[in-house]
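Researcher: We're teaching a course module on how sequence relates to structure. For the next exercise, students receive a sequence and then see the predicted structure as tokens, so they can try to spot secondary structure elements on their own. Here is the exercise chain.
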Amino acid sequence: LVKERTVIPVKFGSRLKTKEEVEKVLEGGYSEFRRRLDEFEGKIEVDVTASWKDFGKAINEVVENDNAIKNLKEKIAGMPASKALAEKIKLGALIKVSIDMKREELFEKTAGILDAITVGSKRQEIQDDKSVFSAAFLLERSEEGLFYSALEELSERFEGKLNFSCLSPLPPYAFSILEIKRVGCEEVDRARSMLGLEEELSVEAVKRAYFTRTRECHPDVAREG
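Model: And here is the predicted structure for the students to work with:
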């Protein structure tokens, strides 16, 4: 379906039991559904994870290129084990900082090349120490083949030190998720009371009441009073 149609991820906080309920949601949210569909027309998400082929070798390269780490490592080698614990903890922290900087550098290089053929990108949390980065890229469906070619070029540029894995095509989970929740009468009544509204109202009346109420509750206005 994603290969042929524009799909918008939707998070449902309630169950719609009948066809009529579904139609009511589609009618009530039509303008927002339409806006999102137009915004992401023809676009897909590609999730990319890059990992080091040899994590131990990557750490060794970081150590060799960082004089502070090298000096501390040599210092620890000449210390008795009973006194080296605090320095080893410090060494581990320095290595982590350097590895994280290397991750950032590699992501920036990757994104810099892919930016030319993507609409946007978002970093995601990495799953383990061997991962360099995880990111979601938004691109036109027609550019998917070009995107994969660029990844192959990147793999060659990094001299085979990184493995790239991809999941595609996906709906734009990282870029747009609509949330649909059922709002009960009690919640509506509480909101109406808080805004000082009558039972019969319009969208414009709600907006005006909300604007007035937010100004009254703003901390700067409260301090002035």
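Model: If you want an answer key for the exercise: DSSP finds nine helices and six strands in the chain. The longest strand covers residues 43-52.
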